[in-house]
Design brief:
single chain, mainly alpha, 3 helices
Length: 115
């Protein structure tokens, strides 16, 4: 009588078991490498976002300095207004300082958002 053919649930050969272990180890190594790389990229992106938040906070509270009786350019006022808007939209932590009165005056003049 001949031996029955191995079915789908019969034990694996040594070579198949070894190949399974090696391929599983390679798969786990690739998955771990991908996870670590993704974590590093996310951390670097968060650091850049925090740096931009600080930049926008510093710029958003800056006063408009100009000679007495002079009118600031719309561009200068828009830069401060956009920095304040970017700080809010980025969801930056903490509180943004109040706008400088000189900025608030000219933002109202040019009909730009103050906060």
């Amino acid at each position: 009588m001949s031996e029955p053919r191995p079915g789908p649930f019969s034990p694996m050969t040594r070579g198949a078991a070894r190949a399974f272990v090696v391929l599983s180890a390679v798969t786990m190594t690739i998955a771990l490498t991908g996870f670590l790389w993704t974590a590093a990229v996310v951390n670097a992106t968060n650091a850049r976002a925090r740096a931009l938040c600080q930049f926008d906070a510093d710029l958003g509270t800056a006063p408009l300095t100009l000679p007495k009786g002079a009118r600031p350019s719309r561009l200068g006022v828009t830069i401060i207004s956009d920095a304040r808007t970017a700080w809010h939209r980025a969801g930056c932590p903490g509180r943004l300082g109040p706008p400088d009165p000189s900025f608030a005056k000219w933002a109202a003049f040019y009909k730009l958002p103050v906060s």
